[in-house]
Design brief:
single chain, mainly alpha, 0% strand, elongated
Length: 120
Amino acid sequence: MLQRTTYAILVMAVTVLVIGCSKAKSVKPPERNPKEELIKVLQPIAEGKLQQAGSAMGEVMNLIEQIKKTDPALGNELEADGKKIMSTQDVNLVKTTAQAMLQKLGAGSSGGAASSQSNQ
């Protein structure tokens, strides 16, 4: 009886695998633009909204590695800035370095638009 049950379970498992795998389509994950993703992560750091940048720096460095694959010069510059952020406790240095990184990515800083308008 046990042998028969084991055999039936094995046949069902093989059938499920064959049916499930035969119709499987290759699912391609949506492509992420590492520059855009890095800008999203750096914005709150540059604005001083994060008390500690350390929690986000792992993702920052991973995105920089992806950028280095397509733009090594930019990636190396960003990597140096990222290491500077990770090696300091100075909140102002962290903010200014993140702002510089955003400028290198072509995003600039978010605070400049409001201050450039004149009061009338």
